[in-house]
User: Which sequence fits this backbone?
């Protein structure tokens, strides 16, 4: 009898340990052009492929690492909000000797890791997670702190076809970004920003490594066609921490984009928690969740849609626009990117009764999975679908 009880106890412990293990952070490696890149991933214990999860990317700061940045608490929210959390690891810069994203933030004489394809790495990482887990494509989010905040702003400019809503903490546009990213992001973007007015590392007004908070907000207002005057409220001063929070919300009358600024008076270069007047992690998740319920103008929620056949394809692929699509007599451009985010093909397509045929034999595309983007001239719609080439 004692042996049976012992066996039963061990069995229950194994079940319990298996459940606990499933809730732990896991470290994985993605082979990329920038090298073998590490990342941490947290999958909630109640993950169900039949219920697509949200994906939240969290980007650490200069000199930090993914293990430390996992502690901002998104894994706690994951268990009750169906979130898969991914925290990638930046590469150490050979000159400054610290981990750094190629965010565009740097000194007047040097920009760390300026040759590292971090945008491509993060793009490929999103694709890999989507291949492994069931992810809601309209609930892919990114946030970051300090250098990770700068990187988040860069992603908002150049990777908003995959990431839908953004939030940066103590990081603006890097001083090497805006000249390079002219013309981006190409669509309205919902984004939140959190910054302490006493931040001595990334100044609220005097930012050594990029533009000021006000200049950054002005850029997004122009991009989003936002109202000039925000809705201004002050968050309740509930904690005895010496801080107060001014909240500014800018909306657009022509699209669904939202800009929110959380100006934390007297706060320094830090990530605030539930012990303060504001929990950055909680507030960021609220912002993500509130602004993912409506689709952005570049998604296939409008009457424009298309199919690709055959898919998987070998010799050719035909694009067939649905009968209720608008007039497509103007130029239609196809852009094909690989999973590293690199553009492998750009071509204008000829229209034949809303059908477009692309010969794959004429282009040396290797077997694999690609992201196809259709751009229609004089239209705000940009359509994305996955193509498999045999």
Assistant:
């Amino acid at each position: 009898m004692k042996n049976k009880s012992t066996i039963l106890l061990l069995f229950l412990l194994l079940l319990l340990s298996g459940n606990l293990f499933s809730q732990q952070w896991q470290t994985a490696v993605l082979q990329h052009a920038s090298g073998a890149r590490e990342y941490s991933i947290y999958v909630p214990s109640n993950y169900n492929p039949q219920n697509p999860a949200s994906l939240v990317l969290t980007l650490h700061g200069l000199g930090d690492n993914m293990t430390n940045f996992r502690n901002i608490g998104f894994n706690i929210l994951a268990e009750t909000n169906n979130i898969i959390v991914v925290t990638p690891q930046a590469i150490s810069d050979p000159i400054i000797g610290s981990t750094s994203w190629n965010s565009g933030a740097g000194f007047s004489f040097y920009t760390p890791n300026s040759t590292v394809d971090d945008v491509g790495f993060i793009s490929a990482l999103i694709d890999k997670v989507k291949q492994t887990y069931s992810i809601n494509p309209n609930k892919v989010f990114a946030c970051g702190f300090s250098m990770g905040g700068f990187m988040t702003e860069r992603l908002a400019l150049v990777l908003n076809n995959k990431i839908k809503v953004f939030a940066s903490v103590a990081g603006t546009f890097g001083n090497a970004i805006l000249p390079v990213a002219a013309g981006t992001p190409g669509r309205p973007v919902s984004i939140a920003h959190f910054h302490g007015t006493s931040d001595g590392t990334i100044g609220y007004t005097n930012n050594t490594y990029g533009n000021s908070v006000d200049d950054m907000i002005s850029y997004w207002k122009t991009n989003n066609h936002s109202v000039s005057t925000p809705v201004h409220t002050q968050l309740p001063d509930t904690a005895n921490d010496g801080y107060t929070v001014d909240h500014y919300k800018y909306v657009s009358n022509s699209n669904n984009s939202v800009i929110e600024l959380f100006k934390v008076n007297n706060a320094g270069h830090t990530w605030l928690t539930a012990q303060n007047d504001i929990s950055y992690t909680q507030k960021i998740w609220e912002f993500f969740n509130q602004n993912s319920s409506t689709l952005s103008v570049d998604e296939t929620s409008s009457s424009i849609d298309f199919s690709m056949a055959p898919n998987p394809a070998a010799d050719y692929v035909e694009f067939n626009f649905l009968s209720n699509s608008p007039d497509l007599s103007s130029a239609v451009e196809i852009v094909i990117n690989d999973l590293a985010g690199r553009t492998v093909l750009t071509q204008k397509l000829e229209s034949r009764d809303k059908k477009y045929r692309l010969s794959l034999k004429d282009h040396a595309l290797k077997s694999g999975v690609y992201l196809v983007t259709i751009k229609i001239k004089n239209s705000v719609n940009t359509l994305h679908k996955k193509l498999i080439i045999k």
Residues 6-22, 294-303 have pLDDT under 50 and may be disordered. The radius of gyration is 23 Å. The helical segments are 2-22, 66-69, 74-81, 118-132, 147-158, 213-224, 280-290.
